[in-house]
Amino acid sequence: MAFYQVLIPPPGAGGLREEIEQARLLPESFTVSAFVFGGLWLLYKRLWLAFILYALVWGGLVYAQQQIGFAIGAVMLSQIALGLFLGLEGQNLIARKLLRKGWRLVDVIEAPDLSSAERRFFEHALPAGAPPRIAEASAPARFAPGPVPVIGLFPEARGR
Fold it and tell me: Could you give the CA distance from residue 45 to residue 94 in angstroms, rounded to a whole number?
């Protein structure tokens, strides 16, 4: 089973149903294309800042190999590690980009494949004959003023 993040676009004039229909499901899995193609994958996904950082690190590794004398094996191992990082974190980079643009994380679905995840999300968000529903994330709870909760073995907060 895989996990999928469900993101919907920022609130607009279309209403909640329109937003739900434009939902994007991003798998929480290894991205082989990001591992293999690296910088090209970042450009294709329009992750500009991540591409600039990737190019600087990659260029630094090449410079270190040519000018400082790093062994070619060490440079190749470093580039493989960089590719592994992109493969593991590629989908999270896309999710962060969408969240910065105002998209909202509304659900995390567990399903064997993308089509099953889409079906589960839409069955939950758009039930037949009922208005669309999405559980919005609430503001974090504030602690009420008063006695400080005790953690540990002592019976009261400020004493022995």
Answer: 8
Q: Which of 137, 45, 143 is nearest to 90 (CA)?
A: 45
User: From CA 147, how far away is CA 78, in angstroms rounded?
Assistant: 53
* CB neighbour burial string for 17-37, b if at least 16 within 10 angstroms, e if fewer: eebbeebebbbeeebeebbee
Report residue 109 CA to chain centroid gap. 14
Report whether 79 contacts 70 (CB < 8 A): no
pLDDT tens readout for residues 48-85: 999 999 999 999 998 988 998 888 888 899 999 999 99
**Run of H or E residues at 104:** strand 104-111
Determine contact, residues 3/27, Cβ cutoff 8 Å.
yes
* Residue carrying structure tokens 């079906």: 119
Residue with more model confidence, 142 or 124? 124
Three-state SS for 98?
A: helix
Domain boundaries, the chain: 2-125
Specify the pLDDT at position 141.
43
51: phi then psi, degrees, rounded to nearest 5? -65, -40
Q: pLDDT tens digit string along 3-13?
A: 999 999 988 76
- In this predicted structure, what is the pLDDT of residue 3? 94
